[in-house]
Amino acid sequence: MKKSRGRTGRKRRRKCLQSFVDGVNCSHKLEYIKLKKWLKDRGFEDSNLRPAQFWDTGRGLMTTKALQAGDLVISLPVKCLLTTGTVLSSCLGEYIVKWKPPVSPLIALCTFLIAEKHAGEKSLWKPYLDVLPKTYTCPVCLDHDVVSLLPEPLRKKAQEQRATVHELYVSSKAFFSSLQPLFAENTGTIFNYSALEWAWCTINTRTIYMKHSQRECFSLEPDVYALAPYLDLLNHSPNVQVKAAFNEQTRSYEIWTNSQCKKYEEVFICYGPHDNQRLLLEYGFVAMNNPHSCVYVTSDMLLKYFPPLDKQRNAKISILKDHDFLENLTFGWDGPSWRLLTALKLLSLGADEFTFWRRTLLGDVISARNEQQTLTITAKICRFLIEETQHVLLQISQLKRNKENLKNHLALVEALHLEDLKILQKSAEIICNLNMATT
Q1: β strands within 13-122, DSSP E
Q2: Average pLDDT for runs of 10 along the chain of length 439
Q3: What's the pTM?
Q4: What domain count does the chain have?
Q5: Which of 70, 128, 314, 406 has the greatest number of beta carbons closer than 10 A?
Q6: Does residue 269 form part of some domain?
């Protein structure tokens, strides 16, 4: 009997230990106690989800009971959601309605977040604001030295993102000034660039899609944002499926799972079939072993491997451009994409084969020589990208030693490149096998 009790005790301890290995329950922390009370006052009924800290994903939600496909994960009443309706019913409403030209729904929400954060203890949304991240890792927040280490297509998008937020700030300055009667302090110090950057990142990384009817007091940009306290603690996994939508009957935003989840495990949702460059750009993180991840080949890199003296070169580039074959050329876990191979096949057409370009775009085999040259150049591009990625990883490891303050940001970019390297090495293997099969 004693033995059996000891075994049960060990089992229980092991189970308890296991739950701590998966994630450490954080629901005892004051900010979460306050948030749950605040949500309860607004009609949210406690679910089986608990805030927890996970070693691989950071902060998230764990389930206290096993979930089956078809189970309701969370149901958040409309009173808990922060939308443009919330903003209009606040003291900012009359200023937004009066302002011409109308502000965008995005700026209305940014303004509300900044104003409420500034209000501190007086804010009705304080329990939610207290659990929001203080800083973000979207490219717009990254140091210039870190951005320069991103893969070229992402670097370009990161610069565009920065320009968008800067333009948003400059174009909203006059509107921010109009709010001066609401504040004792100068609006210029409250609504500064870093405050807008924080609010923009909060909305860009955390809002759920929820369509609202067009209001005259807003510009014509779609009003599709809603901030969802507590629900927004759910992390992304590319390997789960969920159904998420606003339920008009229950007047709640609901998430239903199509996947299973064990007791005490982290509950995930899926933001969409995004590759890692998109995840980093929009949400500020990278998903390891992401099945949607790929490495992009720029058109400049593509053309580098073809002789500039080819008389049909300009015509070939023109055809690729007209048929949208100079964008989204990638290497993935399953090797070079069909689009990349097709673009390379067309560029590899001999002078006597050029008339068959339409057949090439349809995927037809033109000649053994064309197939072989395509694979040879694909292998060269892949090898070049591997060497380039390894070089950047070396730069990152040196910077990590010298720039302590950038360590977290550098680790994020390093994770992206390490994933890229795995994809490229897998692609190199696949190309090698294809080469052997055709020779």
Answers
A1: 24-25, 49-54, 58-63, 72-77
A2: 43 44 85 96 91 90 94 95 97 96 97 97 97 95 94 94 96 98 97 98 95 92 95 93 93 94 92 94 93 94 85 91 94 97 94 91 92 95 97 95 91 96 97 82
A3: 0.88
A4: 2
A5: 128
A6: no
